[in-house]
Amino acid sequence: MKILGIETSCDETAAAVVENGRNVLSNVIASQIDLHKETGGVVPEVAAREHAIRIIPVVDEALKKAGTTLAGIDAIAVTAGPGLVSSLITGTTSASVLAMSLNKPLIPVNHIAGHIYANWLDLPADTIQFPIVILTVSGGHNDLVLMKEHGNFELLGETLDDAAGEAFDKVARLLGLGYPGGPHVSRRAEVGNPNRFDLPRVYLDKKSFNFSFSGLKTAMLNLTKNEHEQNGTLTEEFVADAAASFQETVCDILSDKLLKAAELHNAKEVHIAGGVSANKRLRFMMEEKITSKYYKDHKNKIQILKNSPVLRYTADIKYCTDNAAMIAGAAYFLNKTVDNEMAKADPTLTLYQKA
Ligand code: KG4
Ligand code: ZN
């Protein structure tokens, strides 16, 4: 089954053709990063206008690269939410018109489900084993999810304030680095000392699988302010050490909570997904903790890991950040069509069942 996926929830106009939820035939992403660099973040009206200009050429290119035409597509999938409503509308309207005019099924997809199913792309059938605990973490969300089977998602924890990706973006701004912040902070961190600054590691209470990054952000604000006051500038060495210390703190919190949740739910696999899962240090730290069999608890004490879950993240970095292959993939496994209806853009769309 060939599904054409469309994704326009934020600042990437994307279309892809995926066969049977895993086999990526094309994955086209028109990034607006250069445009939003000027403002240091996404301006919704600017993003919406770009989506309207780019959507048709992007869909055309995705079909061409997949060696097919609209006639060869079995269904149209589209991100319905969450996201920026003015951005979502371009995708949902385009997908609805395509589905109606071609008389093909229309499958609205939750954006977070898309990120989760990115880990199925390019893998042989039946590779992944349930139950899985997933950390899906990007600029807009930061959720810990228990997945017992396809379509069954239980929210174990979420951020009480910022998502980790948003914190990376804000810290990049404080350190005078570019947009989006994650890759810039990560690059500087490679040459920095992660132990130079002792930053707050907020694990919340013993039972909580929620996250909070506002204290860490304030600590980074104070750190850079002090440095400015004392030296009048931020040296290369300071920026690298601050980036490394910040990244180490975030990765520690994310990986510890993920492994603790995996242990509690006897997960066969742990997955990381979303933009921040592109982070090399997070990937390495997860490998390291699983191999060495430990995580740290809410008091920052080492705990021994009894289970040995399989760790998965996408082989191709392009599947971590927003793309349409993940939307076409999720649509195949979730397959909830809305024949003859418009796909509604819903910025608050939720995915989770009650525990
Ligand atoms: O999934 P995504 O493309 O969009 C949302 O759904 O929000 O994620 C974008 C976020 C940005 O905040 C960006 O800074 C972060 O992912 N990001 C990273 C890295 N690459 C992207 N964060 C840390 N390290 C990276 N290498
Ligand atoms: Zn996303």
Describe it.
There is one protein chain. Helices cover 40% and strands 19% of the residues. It has 355 residues and is an alpha/beta fold. The chain has two domains: 160 residues, Nucleotidyltransferase, domain 5, CATH 3.30.420.40; 181 residues, Nucleotidyltransferase, domain 5 (2-Layer Sandwich). The chain has a five-stranded mixed beta sheet, with helices on both faces. A five-stranded mixed beta sheet has the order 8-7-6-9-12, with helices on both faces. Strands 10-11 form a two-stranded antiparallel ribbon. Strand 1 and strand 2 form a beta hairpin. The mean pLDDT is 95. The site of zinc ion has 5 residues, from helix 4.
